[in-house]
Amino acid sequence: MNAIPSPRRAVLPAAALLAALCCLLLAAPRAHAAAKTTWLCSPSLRSDPCRPSLATTQIAPTGTVLGSTQVTAAKRPAFDCFYVYPTVSNQPRPQATLKIDPEERSIALYQASRYSKDCRVYAPMYRQMTIQGLLNPKTVTAKMRTTGYADVVAAWRDYLRHDNKGRGVVLIGHSQGSFVLRSLIAKEIDPKPTVRRRLISAVLLGGDVVVKKGSDRGGDFKNVGACRSAKQVGCVVAFSTYNETPPANSLFGRTTVPIAGLPASGRKDLEVLCTNPAALGGGSAPLDAIYPTTPFAPGTAIGALVPLIGFPVPTVPTQWLEARGAYTGRCSADGGAHVLRITGVDGAPVLKPLADASWGLHLADANIALGNLTALVESQARAYLKR
User: Fold this and answer.
1) What is the pLDDT of residue 13?
2) Residue ranges in the chain whose pLDDT is less than 70
3) What is the pLDDT of residue 18?
4) Angle, CA 81 vertex, CA 78 and CA 86 arms, to 5°
5) For the residues of 305-333, what is the DSSP string, one character each?
6) What would the DSSP string read from start to end of 74-86?
7) Which residues contact 253 (CB under 8 A, 6 or more apart)?
8) What whole-number distance in Å separates Cα of residue 108 and Cα of residue 46?
9) Which residues of 6-28 are buried (b: 16+ CB within 10 A; e: fewer)?
10) What pLDDT score does 25 carry?
11) Residue 202 in contact with residue 236, Cβ under 8 Å?
């Protein structure tokens, strides 16, 4: 099993990674339109990590088992989801290949597969910066930073050309995946009305989407604004999770890295967007945490970290655990960072920031409110289809 990065070692490389990923906003690489997409998840795959059993065990905040339910997936999903995964590659190089490893299958299960209840999930492989590249940013070249984005653009165009057929689509990303999707939306969707009309919503977690101060848009995107209603479409949900006031060196919630090539000091008109999926209009509300019982890719760096987050995992026969209302969430600007602040209730365990307080609950972003997010996407899709 890989060693867990020490807090001191992880903080500076992570900041460098965020700066490198923001450079993607400048990049306009040639998309490999003729290249064949390697799909991690697709309805055409026989073995698809995004189509697992949806059987779920309900647990109390303390982890006590309450009962189980069988969640049924739609037989003919009426819309699609396009997912770009975060930094997970354990390959011993700064840039991953397109080979599907256990960690990509695990992250698709954890973050994207639950959406298959309502949508067809497409997830392309891309040559992302690996965990080794994150910890050793000097080994990451400018070409590497643009290659992963080009892979995703090519897959997006492939999907639109061969699979979309005019259907509405939800974009889903986390961390590096959200940074990639920020660029894709800005270049491939936001300025193109015919494509923008297919956007149901974008769920961009742990990726510091920026807007003009006091506004729901105007930073990353001109036309795609923040979601403020479960019936609003063509909008974005974005947040990073902390369970305490973010420290001054927090890696998320601050406009402290270059955006679109401009230094942070030149973008004082921007702020990081936070939209609470449980209360889009503002305020505090209960969160519906959902996460798998299956261990995350044993023997990998992320696999070593996931159990340390602190979610209770009782022994149950189902693929999923659901803890409704174990935590409440609200968007907060305390400490100058715009984040989703969560609080445990009724004896819920205190979740552990990893690798340290500057990261907050980054590894829990996709699951802490997964029930709220899937319900929101379902509601937005209904509104989209009526429109």
Assistant:
1) 45
2) 1-35, 257-266
3) 52
4) 170
5) HGGGS-------SSSEEEEEEEEEEEEE-
6) PSS-SEEEEEE--
7) 208, 240, 242, 246, 272, 274, 337, 338, 339
8) 15
9) eeeebbebbbbbbebbbbbbebe
10) 39
11) yes
Model-level pTM? 0.92
Per-residue pLDDT at 256: 76
**Pseudo-torsion of CA 42, 45, 47, 48, nearest 10°?**
10
Please report where in the chains the tokens 């609003």 appear, as a residue. 232
Helix (H, G, I), strand (E, B) or coil at 95: strand
Contacts 24+ apart (CB under 8 A), 22-25: 22/179, 22/257, 22/258, 22/259, 22/260, 23/142, 23/145, 23/258, 23/261, 24/145, 24/146, 24/149, 24/179, 24/180, 24/182, 24/183, 25/182, 25/183, 25/186, 25/220, 25/259, 25/260, 25/261
Q: What is the pLDDT of residue 10?
A: 39
Check: CB of residue 260 under 8 Å from CB of residue 218.
Answer: no
Of the candidates 57, 83, 121, 11, the residue with the CA atom closest to the CA atom of residue 311: 57
204-227 pLDDT tens trace: 999 999 999 999 999 999 999 999
Six-digit token pair at 209? 């989407």
